[in-house]
């Protein structure tokens, strides 16, 4: 028997590991033309949302929505840290994103879908058509599937309009959707099906990715099997066809279980479904995210508070007006897409671009051609995409005639040189940039400049948003003074309407993960005693701008996607010859960070290193998805360990990043460090 125990190195919060210390940069001012048209220009806005007006200030966000029944109370703190927002209110997210725009914007495009295949022209979907499609899908979910408010449904869909249609149809009925990023493996989807208790999986046959129409249905078969093995039966798999009427996957449909959504919808043509009047606190969706332990957590978001928060921040930070053409190049399968492609922008009657494929296909200028063709003026992407798109030779013709008023980055720190390229080359020195810091658990932005009011500073996310009061703690739990320029643990002192409600089915883990460490008094009903711990390291400069330094826990941020090191290690340990696995984050020019894997083999293993590397790569892809594939796999004779037997990941990380390993004399097997260093660095 192989020992499958993974030891943890709990020396996680090591400042040297996390700090990305760029020098202080000078400011850039927003252009007057931007300021003149901005949604938020009140210089007193942060005062209006100051602590003396909390929580009542958040009425401003809630009042951007249409309520069936007004709320009685803004914030109920009777059961900390299970905050309740806008209690007594009745609301429907789908109604707010679709129905309420029909009078004024019936024939305005809600979405413009862009196929990865450049010869397929973009397809606009008006608010009226979105309304019709969402109603028909809702009728199908209700009458064919028998689903009702509070039930969970797992979606495993790529970037086509079938995804927002399905999400909105769920929201219309109060069904809790749980969309799994399309690039995740079938096994990942299966685990999420089981955890959420979904009886239906909604997927598709195929989609375009880097020039290939890839079979997505095969993942559904794996997902259903995995869910079954974990004890959750899936009754039906609903399959959208990428090209309606034509089946584009090689994997056969399973009789009696798999059905085509397009075919079923014919029975529901023209049907209308009244939007459910949901409690403000009713869960709207789950979004699974990586944490420090192996099991991804289902971040549960509420209806009223979440929708209010994403609507308010889309209006003031993204500066979306109905007449803008907005393009967030994220995937709807991540929180960014939920909040800033679907719910926030639609609540503001935006016209949004949904692009199916990879940004660099077939070449680096594709995004600028799309922007130009569709007249995009607000563009939102990740630093990884910015870095990838920058990597064109000097002979490359420059980036098209697009004219952006506003650009956003999200998901990882953006280094000042990439920021400046984005600002000068893509924004042509005219567009404002918002570097937005937040997390799956937060629902919406927590730090960013307000585009017409705050100067931009490359490398810093900016001040906290109105109504968000951060605090940074040092390792001993002391508050660092504001503007100290010292690194510590980034926390938010107060609740805000977009904050995670709980972890699905695991209230204890919710309290432990986010509140336990800095809670001042577990019996207190006062929100001031319950700061939210983000898990990020940060420092605050004198000007009140926050620089986010990265995760202080066992989470790796790859291209702005969160991966738990424990998840990857668990995947490696499914390879029979692997006895121990350790994953470390390695700096990467394009992706920010990439996972690198160290494995040691079970005694007596005869497998070749090549075979192990291949098997480890395959295991990561199968268990999690392609994004988790390690950049390098090192098969080492032994792991550096403390005397108590813990693997010293910090030492491995130093080796992988070409840094000094520091003092290793206290290790149980210090000599192995030099062997590993030689093997890795040559
Ligand atoms: O480390 C922070 C980083 O991304 C993590 C959150 O990842 P996720 O939940 O997947 O949500 C990503 C999109 C909201 C954070 O803990 N992060 C996010 N935005 C920034 C960032 N790091 C630096 N600067 C940012 N603007």
What's a concise summary of this model?
The protein has 682 residues and is of the alpha/beta class. Helix content is 28%, strand content 21%. It is globular.
Structure overview:
Helices cover 28% and strands 21% of the residues. The protein contains 21 helices and 30 strands. The chain has an 8-stranded mixed sheet, with helices on both faces. It has a 7-stranded mixed sheet with strand order 5-4-17-16-18-19-20, with helices on both faces. Strand 29, helix 19 and strand 30 form a beta-alpha-beta unit. Helix 12 crosses helix 13. The radius of gyration is 25 Å and the shape is globular. The two termini are 33 Å apart. 54% of the residues are buried. The N terminus is likely disordered. The chain binds adenosine-5'-monophosphate-propyl ester. Adenosine-5'-monophosphate-propyl ester (PRX) binds next to helix 13, strand 20, strand 24 and strand 25.
């Amino acid at each position: 028997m192989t020992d499958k125990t993974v030891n943890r190195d709990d020396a996680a919060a090591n400042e040297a590991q996390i700090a990305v210390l760029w020098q202080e940069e000078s400011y850039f001012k927003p252009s007057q033309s931007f300021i003149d048209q901005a949604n938020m220009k009140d210089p007193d806005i942060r005062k209006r949302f100051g602590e003396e007006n909390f929580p009542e200030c958040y009425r401003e966000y809630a009042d951007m929505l249409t309520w069936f029944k007004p709320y009685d109370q803004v914030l109920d703190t009777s059961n900390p840290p299970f905050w309740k927002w806008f209690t007594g209110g009745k609301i429907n997210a789908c109604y707010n994103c679709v129905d309420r725009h029909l009078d004024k914007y019936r024939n305005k495009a809600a979405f413009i879908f862009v196929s990865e295949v450049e010869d397929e022209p973009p397809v606009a979907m008006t608010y009226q058509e979105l309304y019709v499609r969402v109603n028909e899908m809702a009728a199908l979910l209700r009458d064919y599937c028998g689903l009702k408010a509070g039930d969970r449904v797992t979606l495993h869909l790529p970037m086509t309009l079938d995804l927002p249609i399905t999400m909105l149809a769920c929201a219309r009925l109060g069904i809790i959707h749980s969309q799994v990023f399309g690039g995740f493996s079938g096994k990942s989807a299966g685990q999420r099906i089981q955890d959420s208790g979904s009886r239906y999986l909604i997927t598709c046959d195929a989609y375009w990715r880097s020039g290939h129409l890839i079979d997505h249905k095969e993942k559904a078969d794996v997902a259903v099997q995995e869910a079954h093995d974990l004890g959750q039966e899936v009754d039906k798999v609903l399959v959208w066809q990428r090209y309606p009427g034509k089946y584009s996957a090689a994997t056969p449909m399973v009789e009696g279980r798999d059905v085509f959504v397009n075919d079923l919808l014919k029975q529901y043509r023209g049907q209308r479904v009244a939007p459910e009047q949901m409690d403000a606190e009713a869960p709207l969706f789950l979004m699974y995210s990586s944490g420090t332990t192996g099991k991804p957590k289902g971040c549960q978001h509420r209806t009223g508070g979440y929708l209010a928060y994403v609507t308010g921040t889309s209006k003031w930070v993204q500066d979306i007006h109905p007449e803008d053409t907005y393009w967030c190049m994220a995937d709807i399968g991540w929180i960014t897409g939920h909040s800033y492609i679907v719910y926030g922008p639609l609540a503001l009657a935006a016209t949004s671009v949904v692009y199916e494929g990879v940004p660099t296909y077939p070449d680096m200028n594709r995004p600028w051609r799309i922007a130009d063709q569709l007249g995009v003026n607000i563009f939102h992407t990740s630093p990884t995409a910015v870095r990838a798109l920058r990597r064109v030779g000097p002979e490359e013709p420059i980036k098209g005639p697009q004219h952006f008023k506003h650009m956003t980055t999200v998901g990882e720190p953006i280094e000042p040189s990439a920021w400046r390229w984005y600002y000068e080359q893509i924004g042509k020195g005219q567009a404002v940039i918002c570097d937005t810091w937040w997390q799956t658990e937060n629902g919406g932005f927590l730090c960013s400049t307000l585009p017409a009011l705050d100067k931009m500073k490359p490398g810093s996310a900016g001040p906290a948003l109105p109504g968000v009061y951060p605090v940074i703690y040092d390792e001993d739990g002391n508050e660092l003074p504001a503007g100290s320029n010292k690194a510590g643990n980034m926390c938010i002192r107060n609740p805000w309407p977009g904050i995670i409600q709980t972890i699905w089915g695991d209230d204890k883990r919710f309290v432990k993960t986010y509140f336990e460490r800095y809670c001042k008094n577990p019996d207190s009903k006062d929100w001031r005693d319950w700061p939210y711990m983000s898990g990020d390291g940060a420092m605050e400069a004198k000007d009140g701008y926050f620089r986010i330094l990265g995760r202080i826990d066992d989470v790796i941020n790859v291209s702005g996607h969160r991966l738990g090191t424990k998840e990857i290690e668990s995947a490696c340990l499914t390879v029979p010859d692997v006895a121990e696995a350790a994953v470390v984050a390695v700096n990467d020019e394009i992706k920010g960070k990439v996972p690198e894997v160290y494995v040691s083999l079970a005694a007596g293993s005869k497998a070749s290193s090549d075979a192990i590397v291949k098997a480890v790569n395959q295991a990561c892809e199968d268990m999690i998805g392609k994004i988790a594939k390690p950049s390098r796999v090192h098969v080492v004779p032994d792991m550096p360990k403390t005397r108590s037997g813990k693997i010293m990941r910090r030492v491995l990380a130093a080796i992988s990043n070409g840094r000094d390993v520091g003092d290793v004399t206290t290790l149980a097997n210090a000599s192995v460090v030099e062997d590993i260093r030689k093997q890795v660095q040559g």
